[in-house]
Design a protein that fits this description.
Helix content: 25-40%
Strand content: 25-35%
GO molecular function, one term: acyltransferase activity, transferring groups other than amino-acyl groups
Number of helices: 8
Strand order of the largest sheet: 1-2-3-4-5-12-6-11
Largest sheet: 8 strands, mixed
CATH architecture of the largest domain: 3-Layer(aba) Sandwich
Order of helices and strands: EHHEEEHEHEEHHEEEHEHEE
Number of domains: 2
Oligomer: single chain
Shape: globular
Pfam family, one: Acetyltransf_7
Number of strands: 13
Radius of gyration: 18 Å
Distance between the termini: 25 Å
C-alpha cells in the first residue's frame, strides 16, 4: 500500500473501469443490455475528478502494488464532518489480501468524521467489507427509459444556477446530508448543468448530465425535489437514467413512474452515523 501520486491517476482509472466492468458482467440479468467499458469522455471526467481529489484529499487516496504493478486503488474525501468513499477497485484476480488493507488505508482519512457515505455495487465481497467497516447498507434503485413528455407538469421557478448560489447550495447540503459540498459543486458543474429553486419557503438543486441524466439532487422538501427532477427529465434526449434512488426517496419513484420510466434494483447506499439523506439523489462518487 502506498499513497496515490499524480502519475498513478490514469492507471487507477483503468483499474476502476476494468473492475467495474467485471462486476457489471457478473451481475447482468436476463434482458439487460450487455455492459460496456467506460467510454472515453467518462474516463476523462474520472481522471479530472480524481486529480482534483488528489489535490484536496491526498491522505484519502491510495494504491496497491504487487510485483511492481499497480493492481488496486481507492479514493476518499472529507467534507466538514462527512467522510465519503469515492472509488474503490481491485483488478480481478488480485482481490484476495488487497481489498481490506486498501479500504483500511482510506478509512484513516475518516478519523474525526461523525458521518460516512459510500455507494456500493452488489458484489458480495464489497458488501462484506462495508458491513465490517460499520456501514448500514440500503438497497438502491435506478430508473431508466424514455420520458413521456405529455406527463411533464408546469415547472415554474426553476432556473439556471449562478456562482452566487453556491453558499445557498452548501447550506442546503448541510441540512440534508449533514455537510456542505464546498469545492465539489465546482466539480459537478464541470459535468452537468445546475438547475435551482430558490423560493422563499423552499430551495433545491439538480445537476443534469448528458441527455437529461440526473447526477445529483438535493432539496428542502419532496415537492421541490419532484419539481427539480421533472426539470431534469424535461431535458431528456432519448434514453435517460436516474440512479441512486433509495427507499427514503419514494417521491423520486413516483416522478419516475409518472414519467414512464422503468425501475430496477442496483447496488446499495452505505451510511455510517446517519440515515439515508432525503430528499436527495446522491452522486455515485462525490455522494
Amino acid at each position: 500500500m502506498r499513497p496515490m501520486r499524480p502519475e498513478d491517476v490514469e492507471v487507477a482509472e483503468q483499474i476502476s473501469a476494468e473492475a467495474f466492468l467485471q462486476v457489471d458482467l457478473a451481475a447482468r440479468r436476463v434482458g439487460d443490455r450487455a455492459p460496456e467499458r467506460r467510454p472515453a469522455t467518462r474516463s476523462q471526467r474520472w481522471i479530472d475528478r480524481t486529480r482534483s481529489l488528489l489535490d484536496t484529499d491526498g491522505p484519502g487516496c491510495w494504491v496497491a502494488d504487487v510485483d511492481g504493478r499497480t493492481v488496486g486503488m481507492v479514493t476518499s474525501l472529507r467534507r466538514e464532518t462527512l467522510w465519503v468513499l469515492a472509488t474503490f477497485a481491485v483488478l480481478p484476480g488480485h482481490q484476495g489480501g488487497i481489498g481490506r488493507p486498501l479500504l483500511d488505508a482510506a478509512l484513516l482519512h475518516s478519523r474525526g468524521c461523525l458521518r460516512g457515505m459510500l455507494s456500493s455495487s452488489s458484489d458480495p465481497r464489497a458488501v462484506r467489507r462495508y458491513l465490517a467497516a460499520g456501514f448500514d447498507l440500503h438497497p438502491q434503485m435506478v430508473m431508466t427509459g424514455r420520458v413521456d413528455r405529455a406527463a411533464t407538469p408546469s415547472l415554474r421557478g426553476v432556473r439556471e444556477a449562478t456562482p452566487g448560489d453556491l453558499d445557498e447550495l452548501d447550506s442546503l447540503d448541510r441540512r440534508v446530508r449533514g455537510a456542505g459540498r464546498g469545492h465539489d459543486h465546482l466539480l459537478l458543474a464541470r459535468t452537468g448543468r445546475a438547475l435551482v429553486v430558490t423560493d422563499r419557503a423552499s430551495s433545491g438543486y439538480v445537476y443534469v448530465g448528458d441527455g437529461g441524466s440526473v447526477l445529483a439532487l438535493a432539496a428542502t422538501d419532496r415537492r421541490t425535489a419532484a419539481r427539480l427532477l421533472w426539470a431534469a427529465l424535461a431535458e431528456a434526449d432519448g434514453e435517460v437514467e436516474v440512479p441512486h434512488v433509495t427507499g427514503a426517496n419514494q417521491w423520486a419513484l413516483r416522478v419516475g413512474l409518472d414519467a414512464g420510466l422503468t425501475v430496477r434494483t442496483e447496488g446499495y447506499l452505505g451510511v455510517r452515523g446517519m440515515k439515508p439523506p432525503a430528499p436527495y439523489l446522491h452522486h455515485g462518487a462525490l455522494l
